[in-house]
Design goal:
- The complex is a heterodimer.
- By secondary structure, chain A is mainly α.
- Chain A has a domain of 119 residues.
- Helix content of chain A is 80%, strand content 0%.
- Chain B has a three-stranded antiparallel sheet with strand order 1-3-2.
- In chain B, a hairpin with a 6-residue loop joins strand 2 and strand 3.
- Chain B is globular.
- Chains A and B meet through helix 5 and helix 6 of A and helix 1, strand 1 and helix 2 of B.
Chain lengths: 187, 78
């Protein structure tokens, strides 16, 4: 069951880059950002999700299988010829499974880290949204307070007298502040 | 999950897989795979003649491989 023909796995396979990609991944264990950069360099820009799917694809499993089969064949070539058939088969199966297991484990660890990062990113986004909402509410409250104060000042004869009187802008602000906020103005 | 197990065994082109590696591979292809469900599905596949298991002569590991009936299910008989 191959991936869809428009999947990243299928595209890499068609471009004969699948082996190169996974060999690089295995050697470097790159971040998602680095993987995206690698794909951009070979003119195949893809999203995080597409990269995630690539590592879960049948093509990736087949690549792991080929790597394990290669290690098994190398061991087979190096084992003494006269070794007992049962022992030989067992050793070769163990070698195959050891490589498959190591590669699967690395992929699972990658996914675990990636999912952890995604979860942390989601929490950070939610925290940011809460902070933005708090700032919005605080700004609305401040605007409402200013309007309320303006109405109070407008109704206050002394405040109007200060506003319309002589003196610099700074002096008027100071006088109005003292008139409206009394002792709070100095705090 | 049975199809995923068969797919993993099919991808291995005849090399038997021990249960631990098989489970890891299945989890890669299908997240949220529980161990008890995995074992139950393995037994179902074995009973249906789609997969077989034998103990490794040296280590005693349970090694799984796909049977022709299981391969047929993956390829759709092609």
């Amino acid at each position: 069951m191959d991936s869809r023909s428009d999947s990243l796995a299928a595209k890499l396979q068609r471009a004969d880059l699948l082996d190169e990609y996974f060999a690089w991944w295995l050697a470097e264990r790159p971040s998602i950002a680095a993987r995206k950069e690698w794909l951009e360099k070979v003119q195949m820009p893809h999203s995080n999700d597409a990269i995630h799917n690539l590592h879960r694809s049948s093509e990736a499993a087949v690549w792991r299988n080929a790597a394990a089969a290669k290690a098994r064949a190398a061991m087979d070539a190096n084992l003494p010829k006269n070794i007992d058939a049962l022992i030989r088969k067992s050793l070769l199966d163990q070698r195959f499974n050891a490589v498959m297991g190591e590669l699967s484990h690395k992929e699972l660890m990658d996914q675990f880290i990636l999912e952890g990062d995604t979860e942390r990113l989601k929490i950070k986004r939610e925290e940011l949204a809460v902070k933005k909402e708090a700032v919005k509410i605080s700004r609305q409250r401040l605007q409402s307070e200013i309007c309320k104060k303006f109405l109070e000042w407008n109704a206050d004869a002394k405040a109007r007298e200060i506003a319309e009187g002589s003196g610099s802008r700074a002096e008027k602000i100071e006088a109005l502040g003292r008139a409206m906020f009394a002792e709070d103005w100095d705090r | 999950m049975s199809t995923t197990i068969l797919q993993v065994l099919f991808n291995n082109s005849g090399h038997p897989l021990n249960e631990t590696v098989l489970l890891a591979e299945v989890r890669l292809m299908s997240s949220g795979c529980g161990e008890s469900q995995f074992r139950a599905d393995l037994m179902r596949l074995k009973n249906a003649g789609m997969a077989s298991v034998e103990e490794d002569g040296l280590t005693g590991d349970r090694m799984w491989k796909i049977e022709p009936k299981g391969s047929q299910r993956i390829t759709g008989g092609k």
